[in-house]
Design brief:
Blueprint (H helix, E strand, L loop, with lengths): L3 E3 L5 H12 L4 E5 L2 H4 L7 E4 L6 H7 L5 E5 L7 H4 L1 H9 L4 E5 L11 H11 L4 E6 L4 H4 L3 H7 L1 E2 L7 E2 L4 H13 L6 E5 L5 E2 H12 L4 E2 L4 H10 L4 H15 L9 H6 L6 H7 L7
Parallel strand pairs: 1-2, 1-4, 2-3, 4-5, 5-6, 6-9, 7-11
Antiparallel strand pairs: 8-10
């Protein structure tokens, strides 16, 4: 059996990976935590119950008949040495021929992130890895920040006047499907950005035009933004991560567009206008 095991198969990126693999005629086994999650998979994908905290025997069972893996770290897992390293070991024991890991842009210079530890372990074990290092998701605006946009017509993030080369998560799915099914990508890392570099003020202008109602970028200070998160009851570790993320943004580290999506898939990255049209329901009351 030649099949691809997709972790996070019902999530934002995992579902896109699953879709594009199925479009290519691949056999996809989606990792799920429950029967309810299994019901969210496309009918042509196979659901398989899976937990990174499983025993060695359970990890082995999850990989039965699998020859390639799409690996992403669940946001709740910080201790990757305890939960992800054993899964990587199981992949190696099963002679998995490729592990595509969803990493983080700039991870090579940020040793404190779990993603850095995973990338280093993949190299240390001589795993047949491919690392994908995406920029900020456009879908943050239709997910994390959707309530403020929908209810108040405001984008509230402390990005200042910095630029960001946003990426559509669906494009990550296209890239993952490409590198999982075409040769020549083992032991490589790809930084993935969109082809536009936009200030949040420009993001608000585009959303205003496409949605037909005013959207404003409020440009809060870091302190005001962190205080807003605290008032909403977010935990300290989440607030600390947000603080780090937007300090990186304000340094314009995420500002640089590239054509890697186009190079790898033969099609350009999704433009922001198209994303807003496709996700317009996210911001309607």
């Amino acid at each position: 059996m030649s099949a691809i095991f997709v972790t996070g198969a019902t999530g934002l990126v995992g579902s896109a990976v699953t879709k594009h693999l199925l479009d290519r005629g691949e056999t996809v086994v989606g990792a799920v935590r429950s029967d309810a999650d299994a019901a969210r998979l496309p009918d042509s994908a196979t659901a398989r119950l899976f937990d990174f905290a499983g025993t060695t025997q359970q990890l082995d069972a999850a990989l039965d008949g699998i020859d390639r893996v799409f690996l992403m770290r669940p946001p709740a897992i910080e201790d990757v040495q305890r939960y992800l390293f054993p899964f990587i070991d199981a992949c190696l024991n099963h002679d998995i021929r490729q592990i595509v890991f969803l990493s983080l842009q700039g991870v090579q210079g940020n040793r404190k992130t779990p993603h850095y530890a995973v990338e280093q372990y993949l190299k240390l074990t001589d795993a047949p890895y491919t690392s994908l290092r995406p920029n900020f998701f456009m879908q943050n605006l239709s997910g994390t920040y959707a309530d403020e946009i929908r209810e108040r017509g405001e984008i509230i993030v402390p990005a200042g006047r910095a630029f960001t080369a946003f990426i559509d998560a669906r494009d990550i799915g296209r890239v993952a499907a490409t590198v999982l099914t075409e040769p020549g990508h083992e032991r490589k890392a790809y930084t993935l950005s969109g082809e536009q570099s936009l200030r949040y003020a420009r993001v608000a202008t585009i959303m205003t035009r496409v949605l037909g109602r005013p959207i404003r970028y409020t440009r809060p200070s870091e302190n005001d933004y962190l205080a807003l998160l605290a008032d909403k009851g977010y935990p300290d570790d989440y607030i600390a991560v947000q603080k780090m993320i937007y300090r990186v943004v304000r340094l314009n580290i995420s500002a640089f567009p590239n054509r890697m999506i186009r190079k790898l898939t033969g099609r350009p990255a999704t433009r922001f206008e198209q994303f807003v049209q496709d996700y317009s329901d996210s911001w309607h009351a």
